[in-house]
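All the exercises in this workshop are built on plain-text protein records. A record pairs a protein's sequence with a compact description of its fold. Backbone structure tokens are a discrete shorthand for how the chain folds in space. Once this layout is familiar, the rest of the handout is easier to follow. As an example, a complete record with its sequence and its structure tokens follows.
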Amino acid sequence: MKILLIYYTGTYNTRYLTKQLKEKLEEKGNNVDTIEINVNTPIVETSDYELIGFSYPIYGFNSPLPFNKYVKQLKFNKSQKYFIYKNSGETFAMNNASSRILIRFMKRQKVQLIGEYHFVMPYNIHFPFENEFVKQILIYNQKLMHVMIYNLENNIIFKIKSNLIYNLGAFFVGIQKIGGNVNSFLYKVDKNKCINCNKCVNTCPHNNIYIKNGKIKFHHHCDMCMRCSFFCPTNAIKIGFLEGWKVNGEYKFDKILNDETIKPNYITKESKGFYKCFIKTFEFIDKEYQKIISK
């Protein structure tokens, strides 16, 4: 099968998932191409592909604005099918509504949705996830990816159910999409920490960061993907109103997975508060995974 994976990524969590998915699909004999969305991504021709996969990080219960803008420029045909593999740092029910814009657009294109799956990836804002939690997440993502590929191969349709309350809630929270433009007026670079590596300038997916008179400056079309502040090697970038929530420092996924001293038992049945939402998610993945391996 010829498959196209179209994705937007902020701090590369979605790129990581897409790389894994591409490898697993190709191991099964599929021909897989990938498109990563940024401000310079050309509009891809999709007509040669039988199956399209869409992926994005959920920002405030919504799909990112750059993702929506890009997808709305694409053309599809009725013979094609598509699936969604989105991700976020939590599994609150309102996240169920995050694909509504994409689904409405694809419905108008008369393309059939054959699956939507929600993967968990660690936060790049709010607070960093502990290594034990990250490892547990990655292991469950492997299980969910196995389930997703099995369902795609066997024409088993799985959809995430939303409702009017979730849709309305996500819509109103979606107003925060203008927040990056407003907040960017407060972005600053600590000149005492900055080493002039220009990593933030060179990797911003929106070309929002530039150099003027030897100083790093910010335009005002930021999507708050956090790539600049997250990967800054000296933690020199201040992100305005969100400074208190800033997370700095890359998660070493492969290293964490292969470290036997890290025990993946962070979430248990006794987990409370914010972490309680993961209990049901992990139980669901275990249930679906067991169905497959028992066959």
